[in-house]
Every structure is written in C-alpha cells, then in structure tokens.
Amino acid sequence: MALKKCNECGNEVSTKADKCPNCGAPIKKGIGCGTLIGIIVLVWLGTWAVLRNLGEYNSGNVKINQPSSSEPIKTAEQSHDSVMAEARAKIGEAQTLIKEKHYVDANDALGEAMSKMTALPDKEQQDVVDMIGVAMRLKSDILPKVKQEKAKIEKEKSEVAALTALCGPQPTRSEWDGEVPAATLYLKESAHDPDSIKVTECSEPVLTKNHCWVTTCKVRGKNAFGGTVLNIMRFEIGRHPYIESLGIILGAKTL
Which of 165, 199, 232 is the last residue of a domain? Predict the structure, then answer.
C-alpha cells in the first residue's frame, strides 16, 4: 500500500484514502499511469492527423470549395459573349427589316443592339467598338427613310381619324358566326321571309376612303318561290344615327 503525506497536518495517509484520518482534510489524488498513457496517446494521434493533412495540402491533393464539373462558372467573358451574341442577332434582324423596307422597325432594332453593347462594362473592347460602328452606320444610312416612313404613318393615322369621325367606329361583327348585325337588319327590311335571313362569315370590316366600312358576307334566305338561296354580298356601312357600334348600310351588292 502506497503512502503519502497529508498536505494539511503532515500525517502519512494511504493514497487510496479519500480524507486524512487525523485531520479530516480531503486527499488530492494524482493522475494514474493508465490515464497518463491515454492522454499521451491522444496527443500523439492529434499531432499525427494535423501533420498528415498539412502534407496533403502542400502536395496539392486537397481540393477546397471547387465546383463540380456539372456546374460551369459564370465569368465576365461569358457575359460579354452573351450580350454580343444578342446584339448581333438584333443587327441581323434590322438588316432583314431594311430589305423588307420596314425602316422604323429596323431603326428600333438597331437602337436595342446599341443599348445592349454600350451597357457592357468592357464596351471599349475592339469587338464592341466595331459592332457599335456597324449599327451606327446602318442607322445613318436609313435615317432619311425612317423620317419618310414616320411621316407616312402619322399621315395615315390622321386620315383614319378623319374617316372614323365621318363613318363611325368599326361595325359590330359576331365572333361566333361572323354575322354583321347591320347587314342582317338591312336585308330583313326588304326580304320576302325576314325570318329566313342568315348573314354569316362576314369579313372583318375595312375602313375605305370612298365607301366607309366594307365587308363581304354569305347571305342565306328564301326567295319569292320559297326556295333557300345563298348569295355572296358586299356591304358598305356608315355611321348609325343612334347606335354607333351597329352602323347603317349605305349600299349592298350581290357578287
């Protein structure tokens, strides 16, 4: 049995005792061999693990926060290429519109292309400068045509406004069977059998300078002999004095 001195009274006490039998002071127990060996082993294992990881990092075997191959990295270069591709597509669209003589639409497409390119942070790169130059030259070339087309559009708008004021709004047309009620009412007034009159498949009424609204319809009805006949008729429709959306027949002709 091992003995040690009490820290309080100096009396010799067994190392297995919890307190001194002489003064009653608690006995402080030291670390046993098993515990000490366990601590040494844990420290050694921890040191070995740190050194091992450090060696892998220095040799380049450790990958830190690397994206998977299935997730491409978005770069400024890719953004640049994407914008330039969109700008080229717009310029190509403008060139097609110019061939078709739609100069206003072409001018708008060129404006969109230039806006995309001038918004790039690297807009001073040579490919951007060159493409902006192409767009500017095209805009300059079609500028007189753009002005002419805009003037024509404004003139047509004024003419339509004047005609609409004279002829009234576009007459009502059924979306279900294409009937124009103004034509049906007109024909029933002079038909032998008003109830037999069916006006269907009328074309969309078109505003004209000399005949106001014009539409062509299929007309079915019974004649004086009681037989059902089918005719294709053209109707000219003007402003109704009371019901503007209905319109009134100015003229009718069998085609």
Answer: 165
